[in-house]
Design brief:
The protein is an alpha/beta fold. It has eleven helices and ten strands.
């Protein structure tokens, strides 16, 4: 099974949810949304680290004011034993300060930490609604000497993810790729989210993959079981696309709905606890 990281949103009550449902050996990533702000992300990440979890806070460049704030964040992460961050541009319409893009923030992180802080960056198998594909590729090439991994946008079609990983390798981007996969989530919410972030084409691709795939999208809940299985098969049988490092599971904080025991891998609710156990084995 792939190593798995679980993404959570730092909303009210998330600490209690995590403690109740996620093993301590699991790696968690903590989002940074404009309406929450960077302070809440770091606070929750530090608290989870204090509980014993390995934590990767998201740092949205456009939400950070200046180098002084970056220095403070790095100091807090270091004191909490946090050794990796995920650096994104962020959804804030106007930058809070001097960081408009991720590259300057990555440079400041590397300078302050002496390169000791690992940093993931974002990848887009289905493109970005506001950035041209060649510009995205050029940006990754410019950042890869400061980064340690790529985490993809949520995607629903294994070929799109593996083709993207192969494209990066051909173009000289050698960073390992974590495949962004939606966890078990109500179908209506999933379709809404997919439309908002621009990954509708892979949902359409999935709907054409036959009765089983259509069933996954037509029931009450979406299950990523078949997607993860296909990624694992491709990763082991196709060396040209075999640089997937693991699964980045977008949980949508749907941790309290996870059953205690996993059923068959094809059942809608079964995969998320299996992935959580996989995440616990990552360390």
């Amino acid at each position: 099974m792939f190593p798995t990281r679980i993404e959570i949103v730092p909303s009210t009550g998330i600490l209690e949810q995590v403690r109740a449902h996620v093993p301590l050996t699991t790696t968690l990533t903590v989002t940074c949304l404009p309406h929450h702000g960077i302070e809440r992300t770091i606070r929750v990440a530090v608290e989870l680290g204090g509980l014993g979890y390995t934590v990767i806070p998201h740092l949205a460049a456009r939400s950070i004011h200046d180098r002084a704030e970056t220095t403070r964040i790095m100091r807090e992460c270091d004191a909490a034993g946090i050794r990796e961050v995920f650096v994104i541009g962020g959804d804030r319409k106007q930058p809070a300060g001097s960081y408009e893009h991720t590259l300057p923030l990555l440079e400041d992180i590397a300078q302050y930490t002496g390169g000791r802080m690992r940093a993931g960056v974002a990848g887009y198998p289905e493109g970005h609604p506001k950035v041209q594909p060649l510009d995205l590729l050029d940006a990754l090439l410019a950042k890869q000497h400061l980064a340690t991994s790529i985490v993809t946008q949520m995607c629903f079609a294994a070929p799109k993810i593996t083709d993207y990983a192969a494209l990066l390798r051909r173009e000289g981007v050698k960073l390992p790729v974590w495949a962004g996969v939606a966890g078990s989530v109500p179908r209506t919410r999933l379709v809404s989210l997919a439309t908002q972030i621009g990954v509708g084409s892979s949902l359409k691709f999935l709907s054409r993959k036959g009765p089983l795939a259509r069933k996954l999208l037509s029931g009450d809940r979406y299950s990523p079981a078949s997607l993860v299985a296909e990624l694992e098969t491709t990763n082991t049988t196709s060396p040209e696309t075999g640089n997937l490092a693991g699964i980045h599971l977008y949980s949508f904080n749907n941790l309290d709905a996870v059953p205690n025991e996993a059923g068959p891998a094809s059942s809608p609710a079964a995969l998320q606890p299996a992935l959580i156990r996989g995440a616990a084995r990552e360390q």
